Amino acid sequence: MPTAALKPPVPNALVVDDDADILVEVGERLEAIGHRSTGVNSVEEARAALGQGGWDYLVLDLEIPMKFGRPNRVENGLGLLSEINQKDGHLPVVVITAHGHESSDLAAAVISAGKPLDFIRKPFPRPGHQQRTLEDAVRKAVEVQARQRAGGRTAPTIFADGVLRFSPDRVELLDVPICGNEDSGLMRRILDQLRLSTGPDGWKGHTADALADKVGAAGGASVSSTIKAWRTRVVDLMHKRANHTLTETSLILSGSGGYRLARGITVEEAASGPAVAPPPAVQATPVLPEGARWNERQVAIAARLAGGATVRRKELEAEFGVSDKTLKRDLTLMKAKGLAVPQGNGSDHTWMAGPALKAKAKSP
Q1: Residues 242, 187 share a domain
Q2: Which tens digit of pLDDT belongs to each residue from 268-297?
Q3: Is position 136 within any domain?
Q4: 98-120 pLDDT, tens per residue?
Q5: For the domain that residue 329 is a member of, what is the CATH number?
Q6: Is residue 212 assigned to a domain?
Q7: DSSP string spanning 330-361?
Q8: Owning domain of residue 349
Q9: Full-prediction pTM beyond 0.70?
Q10: What pLDDT is attached to residue 363?
């Protein structure tokens, strides 16, 4: 008697959102494309469900409570995303949020916390809409998970060339987000500068110090350390998310020719993204008051504030690769010396130049 063909397993999703209407809508949309789903409404319930295993992908709203009934905070979702990435880097995560595409600091924090497979903005675009839909994102999640489970991971593809796609909220390679918004950190400003640097023989190179001057970094050492950390992260990310093997110089070359995009790299603007203007001219680094040992982060922050820019702590954390506690200590000292003043409420203030910097700007 012939054996009946086995049906492929039904994809199983865990959906995390404290809005009951959203849980119902997501569940119905997933059911319509043949997926199963279970909805939970807090970090506590999500942890318990994830501990049971058996999930093919996760749909995660960031603004959720730790326990149901408590206040919603984006930081709770970011923390859960970071936990998932550390414990199970192969579980595809689709982030859904009403804040994702118009908030530069949030986009940077999301990518830094967990390297999500995709972002989908609420309210969800409908099928047939020009924007990427929830259905598109979860189908991609299932494909990624299937590749990872098919007899173990298939042999990785050696990366030779590709397209860096620039949009207002991210830079992508092979549909994988590898950097956040142009305002979200030093690495995005470096990429923006490198893609504008062309010469007769291809991509033009810059020394670390010259690149630092163009992008507003504290110095060449800051540029070098930022690129080094980003290279390492992208190599790991592309292996996990796209099953491609990259080297540390697959995207950005260095050495005698300076920092420059690799020969096999081309760039393009995402269809919905506006053209990106060149980075603004960098203001001269101000002389900081004596009586404190200023680190390179504080020098870089002071330079931007003196030039009339504002900064946000979360963006600076992503740029410099330091903890919230470290940046808080840096800014607190600058505030005490009259170099920086917080504006607004909440934990992630906008900071602007303080009276000491303004006075220096007015002096001849």
Answers
A1: yes
A2: 987 644 444 444 434 444 556 666 677 777
A3: yes
A4: 754 445 456 556 665 655 567 77
A5: 1.10.10.10
A6: yes
A7: HHHHHHHTTSEEEESSSSS-EEEE-HHHHHHH
A8: 296-362
A9: no
A10: 46
